[in-house]
Protein: N-acetyl-gamma-glutamyl-phosphate reductase
Amino acid sequence: MSQHIRAAIVGATGYGGVELIRMLLTHPNVQITSVVSSSSAGTPLAESFPHLQEIIVDRLDAVDVPLIADKADVVFLATPHGVSTEIAPKMLDAGLKVIDVSGDFRLKSAETHERWYKRKQADAAYVDKAVYGLAEVFGDDVPGAQFISNPGCYPTVTSLGLVPIVKAGWIDTNSIIVDAKSGVSGAGRGLGMTTHYSEVNENFFAYKVNKHQHTPEIEQTLSRVAGKDVVMTFTTHLVPMTRGILSTIYVRPIVQRSEDEIRELYRQYYEGRPFVRIREQGKYPATKEVWGSNYCDIGFSLDERTGLLTIISVIDNLVKGAAGQAVQNLNLMMGWDETTGLKFTPAYP
Amino acid sequence: MSQHIRAAIVGATGYGGVELIRMLLTHPNVQITSVVSSSSAGTPLAESFPHLQEIIVDRLDAVDVPLIADKADVVFLATPHGVSTEIAPKMLDAGLKVIDVSGDFRLKSAETHERWYKRKQADAAYVDKAVYGLAEVFGDDVPGAQFISNPGCYPTVTSLGLVPIVKAGWIDTNSIIVDAKSGVSGAGRGLGMTTHYSEVNENFFAYKVNKHQHTPEIEQTLSRVAGKDVVMTFTTHLVPMTRGILSTIYVRPIVQRSEDEIRELYRQYYEGRPFVRIREQGKYPATKEVWGSNYCDIGFSLDERTGLLTIISVIDNLVKGAAGQAVQNLNLMMGWDETTGLKFTPAYP
Amino acid sequence: MSQHIRAAIVGATGYGGVELIRMLLTHPNVQITSVVSSSSAGTPLAESFPHLQEIIVDRLDAVDVPLIADKADVVFLATPHGVSTEIAPKMLDAGLKVIDVSGDFRLKSAETHERWYKRKQADAAYVDKAVYGLAEVFGDDVPGAQFISNPGCYPTVTSLGLVPIVKAGWIDTNSIIVDAKSGVSGAGRGLGMTTHYSEVNENFFAYKVNKHQHTPEIEQTLSRVAGKDVVMTFTTHLVPMTRGILSTIYVRPIVQRSEDEIRELYRQYYEGRPFVRIREQGKYPATKEVWGSNYCDIGFSLDERTGLLTIISVIDNLVKGAAGQAVQNLNLMMGWDETTGLKFTPAYP
Amino acid sequence: MSQHIRAAIVGATGYGGVELIRMLLTHPNVQITSVVSSSSAGTPLAESFPHLQEIIVDRLDAVDVPLIADKADVVFLATPHGVSTEIAPKMLDAGLKVIDVSGDFRLKSAETHERWYKRKQADAAYVDKAVYGLAEVFGDDVPGAQFISNPGCYPTVTSLGLVPIVKAGWIDTNSIIVDAKSGVSGAGRGLGMTTHYSEVNENFFAYKVNKHQHTPEIEQTLSRVAGKDVVMTFTTHLVPMTRGILSTIYVRPIVQRSEDEIRELYRQYYEGRPFVRIREQGKYPATKEVWGSNYCDIGFSLDERTGLLTIISVIDNLVKGAAGQAVQNLNLMMGWDETTGLKFTPAYP
Structure:
């Protein structure tokens, strides 16, 4: 009751924002009190998203910090890169709790940020304040935090697939190759040739090869867990589907462990974390098996012929890779059960 | 509390069954106590549907009426055509409430059933007992019923688009043409050439032209509402997508009414029924705008040039066209609010 | 030999243009001598379309009429609406043969053009000169013409499905309802929300209901064939696929004919026209069955219950609905066999 | 003229067979004289594939060796695994030229074949006789051969991406990791859960991880080229599209070469081979850019951070990965230009 909080969603006309709305609408402890958009302020949200007709009848607020601070306790920033850099500090200064779904505050090194994002990072004081909310790994940092930087989609699916074995020291951390594949919704609602239907349908291609800005975010997590610098090879591909990410991860073990022992290592690491599910021997997760839900499913194949370990990890990029994990971080921040409002069963088929 | 009931789902390895599970898992008044399958009895459900791993760990029960009657208060039959004919009577005799999602008990005329389904109908005593659960139209029949025959997917989307204007007597009931388009999941999980990926992807075609078994079901509803026999033209097409049905309906008005008056007629007819949403002038619903939800969205275009009225109606075939409406019927049957456990926001995109 | 001609393609960076290139590259009597684009002039075509790497190494020419008149004998205009209005007259005055794939010169009535296209039509002298190249219907007008206006995609598939029975006087011409469905490539390469992948994939919707600018083009053809004004109801839908159009056409017969007699009527009408194929009783064409080819396939269902005739007609919108029919018109214009260079077997699956 | 030959296609009701038909119908030196199917013998081919109506009106022949030997000079075997083992020897003994598109004769080691295909290999005398027709690599073996074993789809796209650099000795042959992704048509027309539309659409998953039977075929090619045993890691994934394969290949260079030098190495290796196209720096091929054509397009990224080289290679699995390369082998076998009848421009979009 007293735990009930009021939430504002900035960037409500984007895919991350609208997925936050879907998640929060049925969250028992949260009330959406403001939907915010710089581009469509003053119009009803259902004009941008007719599926919300008669569900959310509110008009969109402008990005007006005092107004939002007045209407809400927590604000979710589901904004394009660069916007949070400007507005998150103001929101924080106004006393709001902030959960930033963008990439602006994820990297702790300003230099690395600038190299990969090709723009200057936010004020260091606020970057320092941001808690990186990879819930199953660094979730202990979240309770009581005011400011969460929510992990990216590729970093979530990839880091969850790698952290237990990296932490255990069982693999050569110089050997990591991540071949990742994403649905198109990850590119957002902004128009572009690589999201144009006739170009993407019945097509498959790689993009940003060795250049994806999520690379240093994954390396930062793995380095933190490993206690030493980790550099990896990372390739991203576009799959002709809307939602879902799958990372196929190749690593070279340096200690002799059976596939079952590896599976057991992961089971123990994620014990008590309901959103990570480990597959049985010979079973590999499909993206559809987590569609619309906050799960991350992981499978393994240790190849006797080459000695390499293949790890396959999947999430729904808009849920566990964005809105769902943001709500999970809100739950942890508030001291609620981390599954509160997140018990979405995958929609199958 | 006392309202809590135990539910069994027969046909849990099909798409209708698994969607019932998704809906019922978060229903506050229902507990799933048995998942039933004739073909996979004894195996864990998650073996058939890995997306349910750690969500439902139960093994599938066989179609054993005493067992089900012992474990459950209500049983949902999401079985292939012909199966309910056999088992629904036994379930009813055992005192279970039954909600049949198949087509076996929908038609009141045994002769019509046999002509369109090419098989004999069930025992007439049970057919008589079946309440046809088109919730927004015949929902008043449902409270207290023991046996619900849940409408088909095409009949739901089409009837909801036609009933108000047919009932008002505003159109020539001999003029109705329904051009319907469905996603592939309506065909179920059984294999076939017209559900084979490489045949369906990047393809669009009509099937069962003037022969679809849902034709008499729609005509039965419209005739009942009109108070006279209605015969219509009905064509079904397969869309290369998984979920969603859209019916484009053409009718000839016989009384002079503006498009706004027609819209108002529908608004009044569906007043207080939260799952039907009427679109504004010039707006037409897309199937994605109801994806995963129990909504039926309807739009209109009255053509000044030809005088014809075009009605466009959409649902998610697995939700409002099957599992969702079944749960809605359970709610009505039990005297609960009809939206209980059904507040799924459409998943967009 | 002496029949060999040189062709220029204006709008080579659009889907219509690039499909013309695919068709003409293997045409035995044609040499592509200029690829033209206003937006990308000076760059290699393969930069816009990497699939043409090492096939066409030419740089794009600007829209320079003297240059084109110097390099080519015939010019194909695959340009956005409004461009041909400006440049076709200049091309014609320069002595070029012109085949216009846009809608600018299709309608003979300036008033109708302006009402539906919301822009003024071209100079009437040039509109008069334009021969409407619906090859199987008005093909006799084409030999020797200098200027062809190539039919639109919806008009081609729909008119070919209707002309024989309209001409025969077997149906009530006030009863025609056309429910058409198109793949997304018909909308071209220009970006927009209704061609954005995440909005279109796993979605189906109607657009421009009773407002599509192809409506008067179809009516013009039917009126010409019927010898009286024909007005019809026309709805267009977007299918989540790249290529293909299917029209489901509903008409009311006014003379008693069997389905076989109707089929025979069509067979006779299209005798000697190899690109129209009539399906057997109970068989309906799928868009994939003409994918990549110049065929139009047509099937029929005469419903005994309602007396209505359903006609189903399919084409590949980019081939028979654009580039292929344009080449067919070139063949007819030049007195070549109409299949020259057009023997593309549908690519299946 | 005298070079004209008669061709039979066994397995004409499968996707490989029907693609062979599409290719051979416009081949200037070939006449299809028999289409053969064990399952549908006696029925018209167009009953199985309506897109061939009025194109091929022949009825399917049974698998009758004397009949085929009488009607044809060359026979293409596009049959399920195991069938060629039985019939290829008989065809060869009857004096036919045989091009086997199946996997039965690709592996030279009977033991390896049995381990990966889980069935005994064909008679060793015939295996020895089979020339492995990877045209751009081993094409010199083909002229004059009677019996060609046509490479698999994954082996073609992967081997063409690897052979030049393996042959040059520039990489550690123990470091090769191949992450491959295929459209669904590669699984053929036979029904199955992993080709069921609702299971595959809007889904992405790995299959046969470290177990795909194409693994030893690629290793055989690489070992032959390297002059030593090569063992690699190979993962296959299913993409929700019909056609196309992309292999992302990771290798560790052992000699210092720039990305441009690597590109130049490939250009030289494939000089004079028109079906392999090398992409410029920073450009990576998409599967759609080869759709329907016999091209293999290859791009490169040498990562300065990790030192690894990423090679991306694409083909149309049904063309260069099956029917197209089979025709290319026929051309080489007969001493014709290897592009004869194969100048299909990719169909885009």
The mean pLDDT of chain A is 97.
